[in-house]
Design a protein that fits this description.
Layout lengths: L2 H4 L1 H23 L4 H31 L6 H19 L1
Helix pairs in contact: 2-3
């Protein structure tokens, strides 16, 4: 069973929190709140997304890259996929 299925409840809780923060950002913009409040909300969203990324990333590394049953080729393919995702995330 994939780690995202095992941790589905916790991951969905994080996603819902991010959704709420994005809605709060939209509200702040619609209500023309001070830019410092908008910046604070953006920072909160970024932190929440980074936390979600770290949680899924850790599960991926533990389940796929550390799997003793996986062949060296499978682990290399997983590593290439992971690095590709990290490159796009860091842009």
């Amino acid at each position: 069973m994939p780690h995202t299925v095992k941790n589905k409840k916790a991951l969905l809780t994080r996603v819902r929190r991010i959704k709420g923060q994005a809605e709060a950002l939209e509200t702040a913009l619609n209500e023309e709140r001070d830019c410092s409040a908008v910046l604070q909300q953006i920072a909160a969203i970024r932190g929440a997304v980074s936390g979600l990324m770290l949680e899924v990333l850790e599960g991926h590394v533990r389940e796929h890259l550390m799997d003793p049953a996986a062949s060296a080729t499978e682990r290399a393919e997983d590593m290439d996929q992971l690095l590709s995702v990290l490159r796009s995330y860091m842009k």
